[in-house]
Design brief:
Length: 430
């Protein structure tokens, strides 16, 4: 891995380099994505079926686009019972964690007849996109569906691309059924996002679309935002390990590669105050790459976006971590909880040498759908909050309004909004 001593120029160049990975920089795909969306909006199911044949090689029609109970039953027979058991254990943890995020309506009243409050309402219908193709990620199915379920969403619609045989990965189907998906459709790519955003003869329009996908999916979500809500525009995965001389170099190297194996655009960064640790981690990384599968992807990821950064002090190391605002941040230092209190920007924070990133990906309970590409400075992990709406409640009696009605009239008149002022005046004409 590239080893660099930190300074202001190093940091500036690094941040610019990492931002190149953002989906916002892939404008050459925009026209193609917009063409797909326009076709689906205009031709509905026909466009869906044509695109599915073109991109996935599958013959999908109105008769087989929706996954049946028989297909779900078949999926259970094809998935190892041990994996089904693990999925169920993970779901318990995910549900328990997200249940603590629930918000409730509240009202506050006074004796003069004023009632103010906030009404919390679950969304009626949400869409969950699940990638298919080369890999299947049942864990992402759980993470996207469960917070919606906890929030009380009325209908959860899942879409995922089929294989050439017209079938969906059995692990994906089992995870969706266990988590509580109401409807599952065999369609992927930008065309699936368009179908969820506008509706077709087969697929209902939803209020919000969540879930990761390739660049076409990311740009499609960006294009339909406003017609529906979305969770975020997800970029490639990333990890930053913040460590001092007490860290185990073999553990650190293993954790860096846990994200580098995702994608050639994935980022794996170690920020450390120890030159000795830096050297040992680099050696361990090379050993692991030589013996693990997906070594070609890992090596390209490390060559492009892998860094070992040496800081002069822990203060500088923490500032760098906050500037990068990584999706996953591991803290492996002498006093990791103290360091954690100084972290402002991170999607998920893993504390201590036995809290490695895959623990969060699969089992601990917190959501693994996290902000990427520095957006942890203003975005949060997917949560129950993403699947609710809040309405303000205002109720005044005449007795409550009378003492303040002239103030409201004057405020409205100051803005030259006479109809606003009149709406208050008419209530006190007598």
């Amino acid at each position: 891995m590239k080893t660099i001593r930190l300074d202001e120029n190093t940091k500036k160049n690094l941040l610019e380099d990492l931002l190149k990975r953002s989906p916002n920089n892939y404008d050459e795909y925009t026209d193609r994505v917009n063409g797909i969306i326009t076709a689906v909006r205009k031709d509905g199911d026909k466009a869906l079926f044509d695109f599915t044949k073109k991109f996935d090689g599958a013959d999908i029609s109105a008769d087989n686009i929706r996954v049946t109970k028989e297909e779900i039953k078949e999926a259970y027979s094809l998935v190892a019972p041990a994996l089904i058991d693990i999925i169920r254990k993970a779901l318990v943890n995910i549900e328990n964690y997200h249940s603590k995020q629930k918000q409730y309506s509240w009202f506050d009243s006074t004796e003069d007849g004023t009632i103010l409050g906030q009404k919390v309402t679950p969304m009626s219908c949400v869409g969950v996109y699940v990638p298919g193709g080369k890999a299947a990620y049942p864990s992402s199915v759980l993470m996207n569906i469960m917070p919606a379920k906890v929030a009380g969403v009325g209908k959860i619609v899942m879409v995922t691309p089929p294989g050439k045989d017209g079938k969906v990965n059995p692990g994906t189907l089992v995870a969706a059924n266990e988590a509580g998906a109401d409807e599952i459709y065999k369609v992927g790519g930008a065309q699936a996002i368009a179908a969820l955003a506008y509706g077709t003869e087969s697929i209902p329009k939803v209020d919000k679309i969540v879930g990761p996908g390739n660049i076409y999916v990311a740009l499609a979500k960006k294009a339909v935002y406003g017609h529906v809500s979305i969770d975020s525009i997800a970029g490639p995965s990333e990890i930053l390990v913040l460590a001092d001389e007490t860290a185990n170099p073999r553990f650190v190297a293993a954790d860096l590669l846990s994200q580098a194996e995702h994608d050639e655009l994935a980022s794996a960064i170690l920020v450390t105050t120890s030159e000795e640790l830096a050297a040992k981690v680099s050696v361990e990384v090379d050993k692991f790459v030589a013996e693990l599968s997906r070594s070609e992807i890992m090596q390209k990821s490390l060559d492009n976006y892998g860094y070992i950064l040496i800081a002069d002090s822990m203060k500088e190391a923490i500032e760098t971590a906050n500037d990068i605002a990584s999706e996953h941040l591991e803290i492996v230092t002498r006093d990791p909880f103290m360091v954690m209190t100084k972290i402002r920007n991170a999607g998920a924070i893993f504390i201590g040498e036995y809290s490695s990133e895959p623990l969060g990906d699969y089992f601990a309970g917190p959501n693994h759908v996290l902000p990427t590409n520095g957006t942890a400075k203003f975005f949060s992990p997917l949560s129950v909050d993403d699947f609710i709406k809040k309405s303000s409640i205002i109720a005044y009696s005449r007795e409550a309004l009378e003492p303040i009605h002239k103030d409201i009239i004057k405020f409205a008149e100051a803005e030259r909004l006479t109809a606003h002022a009149n709406s208050i005046k008419v209530r006190f004409e007598d």
